[in-house]
Amino acid sequence: MKTSKKGSSVGHIEWRKNSARIIYYYKGDRYVLPLGPVSEGQAEIARFQFVADVLAGKVLPQSSQPTALKDDMTFAQFAAVWVEDRRDTAGEKTFHEDNRRLQSRILPVLGSKTMKSLTGFEVDQFIKKTLAKPWKNGDQFFKPLGDQSRKHYFRQLHLMFEQAKAWGYISSNPMSGLKAPSAKNKPTKYYSAEELTAFWKKFSSPFAYRPLVIHIAWTLGLRREEICGLRWSDLDFKSLTATIQNCRIYIPGNGVAEKGTKNNQIRTVGITPQVSQMLLDYKADYDQQQAIWKKQWLGKDLVFVNFTEKGTPYHPSTLDYWLTDFLSENNLPDITLHGFRHTMATLLHEAGMDAVTISELLGHSTKQSNALGGYGMAPRVTRTYLHKSKDAAKKMTDIMTKIFDQILPSKAKSSQESSQAD
Fold first, then answer.
1. Mean pLDDT (whole number) for 287-299
2. Taking every pair of C-alpha atoms in the chain, what is the biggest distance, in angstroms?
3. CA 351 to CA 151: how far, in whole Å?
4. Non-local CB neighbours of 418 within 8 Å, separated by 6+ positions
5. Cα 222 from chain centroid (whole Å)
6. Which of 282, 289, 168, 267 is nearest to 223 (CA)?
7. What is the DSSP letter of 375?
8. Positive/negative CA dihedral, 173, 175, 177, 181
9. C-beta of residue 399 within 8 angstroms of C-beta of residue 375
């Protein structure tokens, strides 16, 4: 005979025939999770997981849930609750994308259906067929979505149903067992050392302002938004290091926002002496322009700003706007600013640096597993038990300095002459 197992520290299971629910009291609030028909073993596992979720703040107390809507709550009504919670837990750009997918395609199709009546089949058909065809919503016309885009919808809906389950609105996730669209990531184009050499030969002055942005990308491995958010206070010219901790991202409808890095991870990377000298040369012009504009200066401490517009910070999408035309005019292989980040990862790997350290220098999340350059990221097990070198930034500086000398020997020579003159 099944009995209720009580305990204030671990919650208790309440049985009704073959169905069960978990009740847990924490800090004066009551938390409830309906389980439906389950075995005793399954209920025990769910109980411990539910308590862990409550302690981690992933579950709303029963008093905070709109209980009057539970039985006939529509997906649209749940989405309204989910969006408010998501606003406080997701990054600004992520929240914008989640809300855009909801309003444009998800709610017009699934919004009127009740949470408890939605089936896996309906959601599966929405992902596989509805999103894959052109259709209209009022005056808006929507193009069919490819596998990668539909995969984003799949992940968001799965996340929403999991949250609905954790909050007690549904007993199970209707998407359990469904497979996401199989979308192969397109490999990012990057340059070999030979292609990089050919690239720089096309510049009449490879050490001017625009090339400096590229040098930052291929020697420091920064994302475009990180380059836009780079500050002079992040640079330590004495130790030849840069602390990467800021981003400037564009959010449609809200403009450019400043935030932490993509994964909210602060990291330290090495700077080559050549790039350090370029930055110092650029800083002299920067200080001169800042002195001219005085209190009208808008750039604050940001490195890359528009001198002709009172130091206005560059928009992330225009930082490398000239690159495509430059490649076409000089008959060079296609590459993006992000591709130069992949280039650095590949060059470090070819020079013998381990994948774990490279991943850390690039600021990757431990959950990521995409390939950079031609090389796969370190497997999660490896990243769990192995760690980056403690002097990773210095090793990075040493390696990239040698590579820079090979790619741009003229700059290496001028740097040596300058050093001897000093």
1. 92
2. 90
3. 36
4. 277
5. 13
6. 267
7. B
8. negative
9. no
